[in-house]
Amino acid sequence: MKTDQPTLGTLLKALRSRNGWTLKEMSDRSGIPVSTLSKVEHDRLTLTYDKLLQLSQRLNIRMSELFAENDASPEVAVTARRSIGDLDRAVRVNTPNYDYYYLCTELRRKRMIPIITRIRAKSVAEFGELVHHPGEEFIYVVAGQIVVHTEFYDPVTLDEGQSIYIDSNMGHAYLTAEGCDEAVVLGVCSSAEDGLMDSLMNLHG
Q1: Which distant-in-sequence residues (6+ apart) come within 8 Å of 51 by Cβ?
Q2: Which pTM was predicted?
Q3: Mean of pLDDT over the chain
Q4: How far apart are CA 48 and CA 93, in angstroms?
């Protein structure tokens, strides 16, 4: 039996329908071309972080609403949820240090946030201040080699197939190792607190 989980496209279309906007009206309000909005609604295109930020600011909605993280309906017991991660449908966030691909964003009230990340930063000076956010995270090196810098430990180098688990409220940064131009990692972030997605999004601003 197939169940249709909401994608960024269906969430955007529902938002437009709730407000009674045409694609042209949403385009005028958000500053995003009609053709782009149409492709997103039909799941043929996703939006990069700067476009998501533009959309949320101009439409006066929280960023996390575009990730289906908030739901006003009562909490119900869910025992059979499923979401298939696909890079083509991931929500992309591009920053000077990383390219993030947020997976399975259609699931509501997730306890974990899976992210594929391409790492380009090569030094702490280039990276900037160590980042902090609520919760814990697990990082597995898919390709390349990385150096993990944390607030209270000496840097550690991880090769393909190696992993690390840290408290995310401890300052941390992931850099490419010497001689490695780019690395790819799978990260899973979790938190007992609400609003983890908002905290992660604020890191990109």
Answers
A1: 32, 36
A2: 0.66
A3: 83
A4: 5
Give the other-Cβ count within 10 Å of 205's Cβ. 8
Q: How far is CA 77 from the centre of its chain?
A: 25
Q: Tell me the pLDDT tens digit for each residue of 69-120.
A: 545 454 555 567 788 888 887 888 888 889 999 888 777 667 888 999 999 9
C-alpha distances out from residue 204 to 97, 127, 162, 182, Å = 10, 12, 26, 19
User: Bigger pLDDT: 118 or 1?
Assistant: 118
- Written as six digits, the tokens of 34 are 């009609």
Residues 94 and 123: their CA atoms lie apart, in Å, by 18
DSSP label at residue 68: T
The Cα–Cα gap between 109 and 7 comes to 15
Contact (Cβ atoms closer than 8 angstroms) between residue 15 and residue 61:
yes
With cut-offs at 50, 70 and 90, classify the pLDDT of residue 141: very high
pLDDT category of residue 195 using cuts at 50, 70 and 90: low
CB 176 within 8 A of CB 117: no
* Spatial separation of the C-alpha atoms in residues 176 and 170, rounded to whole Å: 20
Which residue carries 């289906």 as its tokens? 68
